[in-house]
Design goal:
Blueprint (H helix, E strand, L loop, with lengths): L1 E5 L2 E10 L3 E3 L8 H11 L3 E3 L7 H16 L8 E5 L10 H8 L7 E5 L5 H16 L3 E9 L17 E10 L6 E7 L7 E2 L17 E4 L2 E3 L5 E2 L1 H22 L9 E4 L4 H11 L10 H4 L6 H9 L1 H4 L3 E10 L3 E10 L2 E2 L3 E2 L1
Parallel strand pairs: 2-17, 2-18, 5-6, 5-7, 14-15
Antiparallel strand pairs: 1-9, 2-8, 3-4, 7-8, 9-16, 10-13, 11-12, 15-16
Helix pairs in contact: 5-6
């Protein structure tokens, strides 16, 4: 596992955007009343925000970025790098980051590229943008992260529909010689790549006449080859094993006093998994916020969305130490210790 530090780069603000459209799990017809209650108890997910056909991840991130730029009183021509982390880009090509650079009115001197990661993507994205800013001497940057996973789901798949919601985020980074070091631990185990996968649609398995044929997998699960496949048991085992390991690795590597960490923000996979992770790490439950109830699993947006929705009051006009941890599709993981010092947390946007 790769553990490293990036200095002189500070997080200045976080903004999030979700669709207005709410979908309640109790209203789903693919689950019985008994199944719904058991699902909610296990995952903690009661409702999710679902994007309409016209809304893409880039739209959510664009709105979040516009709001954050305004709240920070930044000048757009000062932003020198934009990184878009998502598995639901607008097109196969070109990269959505290029489109966002133009939509946001950023300078043509702005570096812009996509990173197609999911659950660990926010932490990976932070390390990429901070590392590039430090190496190249860039002053200001935007990390846009999120997914509209609902677009990948079969409406007849009870293993995925009640869990995943849509969301986008924007995080502002700035060169600051007084900033406390950003600390990272990242890793990958590609042997588990089939645990979370969309089989067809890429170069390996091009879409063909059979790709859209809906097949009955088991009772309550029907999907085609362009829909998301989630092996819940494999992902659960991976999460409760790897997440504690990467947090411990970071803490030991950099001799972090874990008792002085104010908040631990984990990828919002599901409540049962996350509670087991917290128990393994022996963390105080009051230091671990959740946004699962209202938003479900929003992929790479879960960490910033949880911060914005649950910690705004705690972080306003304050200096707090956080450990954030993402884990999942890839399979991959990433943990970071970040210092949020008088960070701007924008009000949640709905479109």
């Amino acid at each position: 596992m790769a553990a490293f530090s990036v200095n002189d780069i500070a997080i200045k603000g976080i903004s999030c955007c979700v669709p207005k459209n709410k979908e309640l799990n109790v209203d789903l017809d693919i689950l019985t009343s008994e199944e719904i209650q058991k699902f909610i108890e296990a995952t903690g997910v009661e409702e999710r925000r679902i994007a309409t056909k016209e809304i893409c991840t880039s739209d959510l991130c664009c709105e979040a970025a516009e709001k954050l730029i305004k709240d920070l009183n930044w000048q757009k021509d000062e932003i020198e790098i934009l990184v878009f982390v998502s598995q639901t880009a607008d097109y196969i090509l070109p990269v959505s980051a290029a489109i966002l650079q133009d939509r946001l009115g950023l300078s043509t001197n702005c570096i812009a590229f996509d990173v197609p990661l999911g659950c660990s993507g926010y932490v990976y994205g932070m390390s990429i943008i901070a590392g590039m800013m430090k190496a190249a001497g860039l002053k200001k940057g935007l990390l846009l992260a999120g997914d509209t996973s609902s677009k990948l789901l079969s409406k007849k798949d009870k293993s995925t529909v009640p869990l995943f919601g849509d969301g986008g985020s924007a995080t502002a980074f700035e060169f600051d010689e007084k900033a406390e070091n950003l600390l990272f631990d990242l890793g990958t185990d590609g042997s588990g790549y089939k645990a979370i996968i969309v089989p067809d649609g890429g170069s390996r398995n091009r879409i063909n006449e059979d790709s859209l044929i809906v097949k009955d997998i088991e009772e309550g699960i029907s999907r085609n080859a362009c829909n998301l496949v989630l092996d819940g048991m494999d992902v659960f085992g991976f999460g409760i094993s790897q997440a504690p390991k990467t947090v411990k690795k970071l803490v030991e590597k950099f001799e972090i006093d874990i008792d002085k960490i104010d908040h631990f923000v984990f990828h919002q996979a599901n409540l049962m998994m996350n509670k087991m992770i917290v128990k393994k790490l022996k963390l105080p439950v009051e230091k671990v916020p959740y946004s699962l109830k209202e938003f479900g699993n929003t992929s790479s947006a879960t960490i910033p969305l949880t911060i914005a929705a649950e910690l705004k009051e705690s972080l306003t006009n304050a200096s707090k130490d956080l450990i954030v941890c993402g884990f999942g599709v890839g399979l991959s993981w990433g943990t970071a210790r970040i210092k949020l010092d008088n960070v701007v947390i924008s009000d949640l946007i709905e479109i």
